[in-house]
Amino acid sequence: MDGKIDLIIAKSIPRFARNTLDTLKYVRMLKERNIAVYFEVEKINTLKDGEFLMTILSSVAQQEVENTSAYVKKGLKMKMKRGELVGFQGCMGYDYDVATKSISINEEGAKVVRYIFERYVAGAGSTMIARELNEQGIMTIKGNPWVSSSVMGIINNEKYKGDILLGKTFTVDPISKRRLENLGEEDRYYIHDHHEPIISEEMFARAQEIRSRRNGNRKHGVTPGKREKFSRQYAFSCLLECGFCGANLSRRRWHSNSKYKKTIWQCVKATKDGKRFCPDSKGIPEQVIEEAFVESYRMLCRDNKDVLEEFLKRTEKALGENSVEDQLNKLQKKIDNLSYKRKKLLDNYLSGIVEQDIYEETDVSLKTDLSNAKAKLEYFQQQADEESSLQKRIADFKKALSHNEVLEEFDRGIFESIIEKVIVGGYDENGEKDPYKITFIYKTGFKNEIGNAKERFDKSKSVGDKAKELCSHIVNEVKDVCSYVSDNTVRDGEKDIEIIKAKGRLKVLLEKTNAGESVPGMCGIGHTRWATHGEPSEVNAHPHVSDNGNVAAVHNGILQNSQELKEKLLRRGYSFYSSTDTEVAVKLVDYYYQKYGGSPVEAVRHAMVRIRGSYALAMMFRDYPEEIFVARKDSPMILGVENGESYIASDVPAILKYTRNVYYIGNLELACVKPGEITFYNLDGEEIEKEPKVIEWDAEAAEKAGFEHFMMKEIHEQPKAVADTLNSVIREGRLDLTEIGLDDERIRSISQVYIVACGSAYHVGMAAQYVIEDLAGLPVRVELASEFRYRKPLLDSDGLAVIISQSGETADSLAALRECKEKGIRTLAIVNVVGSSIAREADHVFYTLAGPEISVATTKAYSTQLIASYVLALQMALVRGKISEEQCESYIKELKTLPDKIGRIIEDKERLQWFASKQANAKDIFFIGRGIDYAISLEGSLKMKEISYIHSEAYAAGELKHGTISLIEDGPLVIGVLTQPELYEKTVSNMVECRSRGAYLMGLTTFGNYNIEDTADFTVYIPKTDPHFATSLAVIPLQLLGYYVSVNKGLDVDKPRNLAKSVTVE
Q1: Residue 447 and residue 437 in contact, taking contact as beta carbons nearer than 8 Å
Q2: What's the rounded Cα separation, in Å, for the pair 510 and 487?
Q3: Which of 804, 888, 875, 894 is nearest to 846 (CA)?
């Protein structure tokens, strides 16, 4: 506090701190700084008076607080017991009268409540109801849009039938004031007919019945997510198991509105996680399973009487085992054990063995476990009470077998009486995969198998019907997690356009087209993209075609007003077969194509005027055989020409091996692409001239060059990329930023720096913040581009906005750049792609020389962006007089050593490879660090999660004690980053805290800090450098660790699921 404060005056001890421990803690901390605290009521001066009196008075004050709290709680309970409202401020449909302490119906809100209940009882889901309310412009009571949870909050609220439940939550203690859901720790009061109801008792009960059924009949007191064992909506629910991966099968309806409708059961892992996780499973019709059971039952009953009697004896023995009673005994033991642990903990605390914070934290955990165990005990007691007697179950079972020796059709009652489990899929006697093999396992352990059940029991259609159905199934198949759809659109001269689509990655399309050999032509579009509208399927895959076949198009981007345009086109007689916004764009172009006499340019430019959103469109017209028309707004697109051929792509690497001569089409421009010729137009349809740009990248840079993955190749390219970027701005040992255009006068006028970026580029900004503020003395704000413009930031007109993006096309970063320019803020772009949108629109551009980066997970682009930020920090510091010429030269000299040091780290990668193999099955990994080390941790965590799919988080090490450390338990890997000398000991201390709670520790530090091995289980050392530049070295081992973990898990390192290299949509 720099001696600026001598005395703090407090009214009294209770006003100073919450309890005795906090009072002593802060008084002692202030005393160390020679600061006195004077308590006015008690007349105590902490520098003059001893702690004894203060401790006694503080303890008395704490006890008074606790007593007061107890009295207040008792008073509130008495009020609740009398039916008085406590803490109620009104809800949808009810107003609260403070004077009379009563609630009355608000008719406007009550209409909404009745509507929700009526729609829910009629069968509508909570998501559908929320959408309907939002479409009607109805808001929640807080003025927010409706979501599923807010609808269910209405459905679950007993107040709407005139009752009220008081005491739903409780305060743990008066010191922390923490509130928890009341699971039985405190009394609750349920009062019937408390006020006028909005809906009837019958409707409320019906809604709860529907809710319970949809939730799998979960009961109160049961752990959420646990379904009641014998409550199933369908005969096969919870009983079907995939024979290949062991997951359950879920029920689906196919073609519900057509004559081909059927009910099928599919592997949950294949449908939810992606087909690649269970590639051998197939959807099986429900009718096939039913017929197979009838056959299995007949096989059982056809056997001789001796077998049947033995079967019944085994059944009786199996049913005689009372599993519920076992569960009750186990739970009672668990409850006794937890109660003993709480008592022992309290004894240790009172004896001074355990500190207060550990006692409180552990006691809350034990108390929660105890409540859950008691709830489960109550549930199983209900199960035991409700279960039919053992003799009756055996008798029913015998009756089912004895009187139904021949089943003519499927009987659910018999099925549920005797079947324990059904396994769908497996291997036949020759070891061949049979996705339609069905194995019935009876409750006695007896089982029989029926191979190729679909062929045997599917009620066949004609061959033509089967072919149609196969095509229809491709359209309606339940979606994979894989978010890609691909197509190949080809035209050979005057022939019609030929379209081939596939769902999934491009290799699927390659197989369908024999690597393109089966679709010869002179003009074509190959396309793959994220699915943003509708599920990934062949129907939703591009290209989309107009009703008359005039226009076929592919599209990157998102149309914001597609629904509005779709409704207008429907009124003009157009029909739609997909869920995509692209189909709307195609048919809008077709509408104007017909309206303006068959002119593609006129059709496209008129459509562009009507479309809101982002798009890069490539279109083929039936009447223009060897031409492709393109249009662009916000989404990236480049065009190339070479040797009488023309190319269209969204990024340079895609066409680099064909041409280095590229055109950048501007915003709201269109073009006609012919063989070796491109004509550009503005939005008015006027021709415009453009000059091509030559890409200096080597074509071989976009190849793997012998490495297994692009990511590993790009990790090895980092020394060269860093050196190239440095050398581009260093002349004769000094910084030279003339090409960037930031002169000294401009730098001196900068009042603040705003760094705006997404993903890894954002983490570059986090590291740059520390460097710029420390070296140049300029305040820096680091902003997420996706949030920047939506929070309406207050910007200084003398500030500098630094936009960081590898591709220069990131949609959110581009939008942030434009927001800054609109507010008159000078902008500087750090980008890797020459001529990209961000580069073209920024006031100044710092090009990093990373070369093409193919892997989705950035490595070398990140490293070069760091170099750019260091250079900017040094130049700002030098111009503003914060460092001398000699200091700047020293820093530059150190920067020049980074490429060699990075190379040395990469050479020593074998230890990391070994360590990564041990972490492939990790569930959670945490990264911690302080200062710049926190910024390093953020990037290390992102690399781990994006390519290995392991849950990973980065935390500022000092924040662990503020809640995060509760996540640490036995086993998780905690990686401590320790490159900052002044913060080393503090971070080591935080790592020790994690280890004491069961964490496995990895330390990442510089050579010389060998005492880290006393704390960490595994250590990685990096060469020493100036602490400002440590990020460039420390990130390399973290990149390698993420890579090797992903490889050990057998994942696609270069193309992680659900991710794209350039995020060109918001």
Answers
A1: no
A2: 10
A3: 804
Tell me: pLDDT of 330 over 50: yes
How far, CA to CA in Å, does 146 sit from each of 116, 134, 221, 269? Answer: 11, 6, 28, 31
Integer Cα distance of 87 and 926 in angstroms: 40
- Residue 970 has what DSSP assignment? S
Between strands 179-181 and 189-191, the pairing is: unpaired
Can you read off the two tokens belonging to residue 24? Answer: 């002593």
Q: What's the token pair of residue 235?
A: 């005969």
Two structure tokens written together for 735: 């910084």
CA 175/CA 158 separation, integer angstroms: 32
Q: CB–CB of 797/787 below 8 Å?
A: no
d(CA 93, CA 979): 59
Is residue 983 helix, strand or coil? helix
Question: 922 CB contacts (<8 Å, ≥6 apart)?
Answer: 950, 972, 973, 1045
- The answer to whether 813 touches 834, Cβ cutoff 8 Å, is no
Q: How far apart are the first and last CA of the chain?
A: 45
Place of tokens 């089967």: 466
Q: pLDDT for 855-888, tens place per residue?
A: 888 899 999 999 999 999 999 999 999 999 999 9
Show Cβ contacts of residue 267 under 8 Å, excluding neighbours closer than 6 positions. 242, 244, 245, 247, 248, 249, 278, 281, 425
Amino acid identity of residue 710, one-letter, is F
Q: How many residues does the chain have?
A: 1066
Helix pair angle (1030-1048, 932-948), 10° resolution? 20
d(CA 145, CA 136): 11
| Residue 553 vs residue 225, higher pLDDT | 553
Alpha helices (H) along 539-647? 562-571, 581-595, 600-610
Q: What is the DSSP letter of 353?
A: S
